[in-house]
Design the sequence.
């Protein structure tokens, strides 16, 4: 497996190398944490996440052996349940552990995941089904028979394992349809899928939240089972879904750099921006925009709207120089370097501010 020091080297210049192949992910990672938590994140935290992603990928593609797992809160559950988890830490060990305890697991996935990744998961995890009662199956939940297959599995003693925060599992956030609900997440409104709540009520199953995190040396995998959420206490799928996300707030916050969805949570939230008046003298808005070069094209990444603004190279270089020197751009200088139309565009897009 690639050493951690090598990964550190790969990302060592991501703050200053505008052409870095992972710079877009880095900018999105920083912008999303700032949006939800108001925290400024450095390349160090992003590098930590990349190390953990690499470990997850290695475990999935090459199998798991000699893994040190520290388990807390687990109780033997003799009835089918819904295990709900996050893409936090080395989340690929969760099916491994549940199978090792003799659980029969059914994992609902989307059509894309079923076609592209299920064979890899099967190859990795089925070799660890050593307990006589353990079994693993995947159900394409997007087919007409998906729910029926889940129901049949539950009647046959299978528990369900669901990752609630994936960009395909709860993805499609652009669709504001009846499958999504609005939720305040760290005091910011987001749209999330409520399918877990629906399954809990329809199948009559309690929910067991579980998550993983790694120790600082990346050698020990902590696996934490949290108190069950009884479906009897709730009347609607929205209430159950909100309760699940509330339970997971602390694990996310205390393992900030280990939560993979920071790379795409901008697809969850409702985007707004403030309109400010223009002035004669300006500075480049470096708090909101960061330069990035992709495929020999020049952009500024907007960490409020999570989008790219393409620029002519000359304007890009002019603004980057202003940003790196923190210089005030006089109105006369701006008029010399850009046309009145471009000037108005830079101001209206908030690239320039007082």
Sequence:
């Amino acid at each position: 497996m690639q050493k951690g020091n090598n990964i550190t080297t790969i990302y060592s210049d991501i703050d200053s190398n505008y052409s870095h192949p992972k710079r877009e992910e880095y900018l999105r990672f920083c912008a999303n944490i700032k949006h939800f938590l108001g925290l400024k994140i450095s390349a160090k935290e992003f590098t930590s996440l990349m190390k953990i992603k690499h470990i997850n990928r290695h475990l999935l593609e090459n199998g798991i052996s000699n893994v040190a797992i520290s388990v807390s809160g687990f109780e033997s559950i003799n009835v089918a349940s819904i295990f709900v988890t996050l893409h936090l830490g080395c989340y690929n060990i969760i099916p491994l552990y549940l199978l090792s305890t003799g659980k029969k697991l059914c994992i609902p996935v989307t059509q894309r995941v079923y076609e592209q990744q299920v064979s890899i998961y099967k190859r990795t995890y089925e070799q660890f089904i050593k307990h006589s009662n353990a079994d693993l199956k995947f159900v394409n939940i997007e087919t007409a028979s998906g729910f029926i297959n889940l129901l049949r599995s539950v009647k046959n003693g299978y528990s369900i394992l669901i990752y609630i925060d994936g960009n395909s599992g709860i993805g499609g956030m652009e669709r504001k349809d009846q499958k999504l609900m609005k939720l305040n997440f760290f005091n910011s409104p987001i749209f999330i899928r409520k399918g877990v709540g629906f399954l809990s009520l329809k199948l009559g199953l309690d929910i067991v939240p579980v998550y993983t995190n790694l120790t600082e040396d990346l050698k020990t995998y902590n696996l934490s089972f949290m108190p069950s959420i009884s479906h009897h206490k709730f009347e609607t799928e929205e209430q159950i879904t909100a309760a699940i996300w509330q339970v997971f707030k602390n694990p996310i916050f205390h393992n900030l750099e280990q939560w993979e969805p920071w790379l795409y949570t901008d697809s969850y939230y409702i985007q707004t921006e403030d309109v400010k008046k223009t002035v004669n003298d300006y500075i480049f808005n470096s708090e909101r925009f960061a330069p990035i070069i992709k495929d020999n094209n020049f952009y500024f990444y907007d960490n409020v709207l999570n989008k790219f603004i393409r620029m002519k190279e000359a304007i890009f270089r002019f603004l980057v120089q202003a940003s790196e020197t923190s210089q005030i751009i006089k109105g006369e200088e701006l008029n010399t370097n850009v046309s009145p139309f471009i000037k108005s565009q830079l101001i209206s897009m908030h690239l320039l501010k007082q």
